[in-house]
Amino acid sequence: MFRILMKWTAIAGVLLVLGGCGFTPLYGAREGGARTDTELSQIRVLEIDNGRTGHDVYNALIDHLSPYGEPAEPDYQLRVRLSEDREGVAIERDASITRYNFRLDANFRLVDVRSGNVIYEGRSRSIAAYNVVESQFATLSARRDAEERAATELSEDIKLRLAIFFDRQLNTGPSS
After folding, report:
1. What is d(CA 125, CA 25) in angstroms, rounded to the nearest whole number?
2. In angstroms, what CA-CA distances link 161 with 7, 75, 100?
3. Selecting from 3.90.950.10, 3.20.20.30, 3.30.160.150, 3.40.50.300, what CATH number does the domain 31-168 have?
4. What residues does each domain of the chain span?
5. pLDDT computed for residue 29 by the predictor
6. What is the pLDDT of residue 85?
């Protein structure tokens, strides 16, 4: 009986501490109704070069930032510049490479449409690995899958960084 009482007392204590720490969900509503996800949905993603990988990142960003469609009159524009690299990480004695790391790097800028000023800029990186096998088709499929995984992971990281930026702006107000 004493253990049960101690257990509930500990749970209540933890809940009181968490309740008093000022924690607010990243995508939750704030006083006055301001929401991070509302700000994210006001971003227009500009076309990204880099062929198929750029197109994958572009589509993933649109899906993550504005799942209900791009805004008709956006408040912000997101400009993304990509670079990609493949590095052999498993090399056999005969110098053949059997595993690659596909690295995708992004430099991005968030621009306020009204003022034309860059209000946030950042960098993001993702790495996805794939194996080289005897079948060229299987290797090509694995490579393509790694590129898609890296593009999705990169877009999720960019969204998170933008959400944190907007969360800070909503909590502290715009800096002058």
Report:
1. 25
2. 38, 18, 27
3. 3.30.160.150
4. 31-168
5. 57
6. 93
pTM, full prediction: 0.78
d(CA 74, CA 134): 49
Under a CB-based contact definition with an 8 Å cutoff, are residues 46 and 80 in contact? yes
Inter-residue contact 27 to 164 (CB < 8 Å): no
The CA distance from 91 to 100, in Å, is 9
Q: Give the pLDDT confidence score for residue 9 in this predicted structure.
A: 79
**What span, in angstroms and rounded, lies between the C-alpha atoms of 165 and 44?**
16
Which residues fall within 8 angstroms of residue 33, CB to CB, at 6 or more apart?
A: none
Q: List CB contacts of 96: < 8 A, sequence separation 6 or more.
A: 132
For the chain of 176 residues, list the mean pLDDT of each consecutive stretch of 10. 74 65 56 71 91 94 87 92 90 81 96 94 95 91 95 96 88 60
